[in-house]
Design brief:
Number of helices: 14
Strand content: under 5%
Distance between the termini: 20 Å
Oligomer: single chain
Length: 273
């Protein structure tokens, strides 16, 4: 752990992510206003001591909505990546372990999925579903497992003929034991790095969908639909676009820094320099 925190990228990313997670967890206790409360007497107030990030076109406190929006955006990221990682591990393990026609079939499916732009595929699916946070999480997860599959497959192929795997196989270890006891634990580091970077991508996708009106629906707050509200008043209510935009930028930056730092820390080649 000390080695990881000594890496400046890991430290900075960890500080950013931890801070955002803490704010999301304690949002109900520190939000000064109800995020959905409409106040016609406080419409489009600029940032002040009473409203730290101003108010929107309905008089709702932007700071409170930002805090609650962080919970939605991060939940989408974690759940969507959990779904995609689970699918990717199963398919990648099957392809890398059994090889042959199983590998060929799974990788051809991966190739077909990768040939379709992910965001447009998500848009097409969401257009036929009722926009909701659960649909968004499931759709993002079901359309972003291909990279994890290829990564797990590559790790399994590189480990499949190692001495410890061959020794366990000689001793009569079953396939399930080989996969879950010997191969998968030795493949976790790149999977974790991929998952962390995937959370950043999922946050961006959710924000984009919400900005287009196909994501989290009002009055429930997310950073994307706060940005949507801000585009109508961007000429004279700059805070409605600035603060959610910065939140998305800082969150994605934090996860990318942490993912890149972990990749460098566990990369044998980088440790030689």
């Amino acid at each position: 752990m000390k080695k990881l925190l000594a890496n400046p990228l890991v430290s900075l990313g960890f500080i950013i992510i931890t801070s955002i997670l803490i704010l999301a967890l304690i949002a109900p206790f520190i939000a000064p206003y109800d995020p959905d409360a409409i106040d016609v007497k406080a419409i489009l107030l600029s940032p002040s001591t009473h409203h730290l990030m101003g108010t929107d076109g309905l008089g709702r406190d932007v700071f409170s909505r930002m805090l609650y929006g962080s919970r939605i955006s991060l939940m989408v990221g974690f759940v969507a990546v959990g779904i995609s990682t689970a699918i990717g591990i199963v398919l990648g393990a099957l392809a890398g372990f059994y090889r042959g026609w199983v590998d060929t079939l799974i990788m051809r499916i991966v190739d077909v999925m990768l040939s379709i732009p992910t965001f447009f595929l998500i848009l097409a699916v969401i257009a036929f579903l009722t926009p909701s946070i659960w649909n968004i999480m499931i759709v993002i997860g079901l359309t972003s497992w291909m990279g994890v599959t290829r990564l797990v497959r590559a790790e399994f192929l590189s480990l499949r003929n190692r001495e410890f795997v061959l020794a366990a196989q000689t001793l009569g270890a079953k396939d399930a034991r080989l996969i879950f006891t010997h191969l998968l634990p030795n493949s976790l580091t790149p999977i974790i790095v991929s998952s962390i970077l995937g959370i950043a991508s999922a946050v961006l996708v959710e924000s984009g969908l919400s900005f287009l009106g196909l994501g989290v629906q009002a009055p429930q707050a997310s950073w994307g639909n706060i940005l949507t509200d801000g585009k109508e008043y961007i000429q004279f209510a700059w805070w409605l676009s600035l603060f959610p935009g910065l939140a998305i930028l800082i969150t994605v930056l934090g996860y990318n820094l942490l993912g890149d730092g972990l990749r460098d820390a566990y990369n044998p080649r980088s440790s030689q320099h």
